[in-house]
Amino acid sequence: MENEKITYEDFKQFEGAFSKVxxxxxxxxxxxxxxxxxxxxxxxxxxxEKLPENYNQKIDIVLKMSTEELQALxxxxxxxxxxKHYQILADPSxxxxxxxxxxxxxxxxxxxx
Length: 113
Known about the structure:
Layout: H1 8-11, H2 15-18, H3 23-31, H4 36-39, H5 41-49, H6 53-64, H7 67-81, H8 84-90, H9 95-112
Helix pairs in contact: 3-8, 7-8
């Protein structure tokens, strides 16, 4: 598991849920450092509950990644998909937003263990 790497292919299937918020709204939420995870908590929990066991390991890897690593992954995803959401999250100004929301995801995961 230590050598596993997360790629765009690992989370591509979740783009539908990821893009529930229009890109222009996401940009505004990033700007005010909103807690987007709380807004979609039931959806996130539902998705987590339906994941196959091997995805729990991948989630663990993602939760341990630095913000810099996550943003590099978002840039890769944008380069591949062209989806504006990824471009917004890859921008260095999104760092605090990502940290805050990843912390909220960690809380959800930990509360389910």
